[in-house]
Write a structure and sequence with these properties.
Strand content: 15-25%
CATH superfamily of the largest domain: Aldolase class I
Largest sheet: 8 strands, parallel, barrel
Number of domains: 2
Oligomer: single chain
CATH class of the largest domain: Alpha Beta
Distance between the termini: 25 Å
Number of helices: 17
Bound molecules: pyridoxine-5'-phosphate
Length: 398
């Protein structure tokens, strides 16, 4: 089975999530028992779809979607051939964008609806044939979209919880409580998909004992945040966490301030990635939402990038927040298109997380301070469950 998706337009403001659309089309084909077939999807502008519309259908205006089956019943010669081609679906991205805005749905969701519609035409459905056929086609279309919605819930954004601040409170007294190891277990019982800890050079919160015990007790995934320095690299190689996230680390900062300057230290980071690779540890690079950092992370062989959401979270005006959101969305999209896996985090709280969780390209959010702060008032179990509900609801809306 294959889905050939080609873009043929030059509209700088339009970014297509090709992988997402291919994944959804593949799913639609499987549901319609044509998983062994091929389909071509061509995304064009209004001018080009107008040409197809006038040339093949004698209609002079642009439209949203056109379908051209490879063979219909009249093409006897073709229909007897044992080919697996279903045909072509042509979609105008300009019309799709206008429709998405009007219907207040996301661009990708509108494109998905148009692909579903086009595919059903290729499979012989036709709403223009009769009223009965029209109802049958709409019903099937709605059913497929609803099913797609529930199937997406299995791929919802994951929530990984950073328990550093539990250790910060413990260390304030220099005693054993509260224990970040116990906190990690509670987070997992409440539904966290992973635990994140930052082993800093100065051990201001998480210490060597914590990472050792966490490695033994975490049942989900352990993500070790760290600076790319010799001592910590050696600890990580011995510990073998499920992944590491490389972050810039300054002794005087209160928390990780900005993303890594990957472009400026490619050699050093590549060397660290290579040694982690040899130990079977995937590496994520914590970067600001900038195209040049995404490209550099990809070039030096990172498996993941974690997009820094700090500026979005700290924005003081709606305009600034929108702008930062767009940068995160674009950087995540670019990384995803390149085949990088995408996480995000820093500063996310109970108000600003939903929009980030709703981005299709983001696999996992790393959240610490907001959850640990809330846990003082409502308990850790409830604080985790509340955040998990926000992430789940945002990432399963179709
Ligand atoms: N991701 C990274 C790389 C971080 O350094 C931190 C802070 O430790 C976080 C996510 C979590 O940020 P916050 O504690 O603000 O949720």
């Amino acid at each position: 089975m294959s889905v050939h998706l080609t873009t043929h337009f030059n509209i700088p403001s339009v970014r297509i999530n090709k992988k997402l659309l291919q994944r959804r089309t593949t799913w639609l084909m499987r549901q319609n028992s044509v998983a062994d077939h091929e389909v071509s999807i061509l995304l064009v502008n209004d001018e080009e779809i107008s040409w197809f519309n006038s040339h093949y259908r004698d209609k002079q205006e642009p439209t949203n979607v056109l379908s051209f089956p490879f063979a219909d019943d009249k093409d006897l010669a073709l229909s007897t051939l044992r080919v697996n081609e279903l045909g072509d679906i042509i979609i105008s991205v300009e019309t799709a964008l206008r429709e998405a805005n009007k219907l207040k749905v996301s661009f990708n969701d509108r494109l998905t609806w148009l692909i579903t519609h086009g595919l059903l035409h290729l499979l012989g459905h036709d709403h223009e044939r009769s009223e009965e056929d029209a109802h049958a086609m709409w019903d099937l279309e709605n059913k497929l979209i609803n099913q797609l919605q529930s199937s997406r819930s299995t791929q919802m954004t994951q929530l990984a919880i950073n328990v550093d601040h539990v250790a910060t409170v413990r260390n304030a007294r220099g005693i054993r409580e509260p224990d970040p190891v116990a906190a990690a277990a509670i987070c997992e019982l409440a539904g966290a998909a992973g635990i994140v800890v930052h082993l800093r050079e100065d051990r201001r919160h998480i210490n060597d004992r914590d990472v050792r015990l966490l490695r033994e007790t975490i049942k989900t995934r352990m993500n070790l945040e760290m600076g790319a320095n010799k001592e910590i690299i050696e600890i990580a190689l011995g510990l073998k966490p499920d992944m590491v996230t490389l972050v810039p680390e300054k002794r005087k900062e209160l928390t990780t301030e900005g993303g890594l300057n990957v472009t400026g230290q490619k050699k050093k980071l590549e060397k660290t990635i290579n040694s982690m690779d040899k130990a079977g540890i995937p590496v994520s690079l914590f970067i600001d939402p900038e195209s040049k950092q995404v490209k550099a992370a990809h070039a030096i062989g990172a498996t993941f990038v974690e997009i820094h959401t700090g500026r979005y979270c700290d924005a003081t005006s709606e305009e600034e927040r929108e702008n930062e959101y767009r940068l995160i969305s674009a950087a995540a999209e670019e990384a995803y298109q390149m085949g990088l896996r995408v996480n995000a985090g820093h500063g996310l709280d109970y108000q600003n997380t939903a929009r980030i969780a709703a981005l299709d390209t983001i696999e996992e959010l790393s959240i610490g301070h907001a959850i640990i702060a809330r846990s003082i008032f409502v308990g850790l179990d409830q604080a985790v469950r509340e955040m998990r509900a926000i992430v789940r609801d945002a990432s399963t809306i179709f």
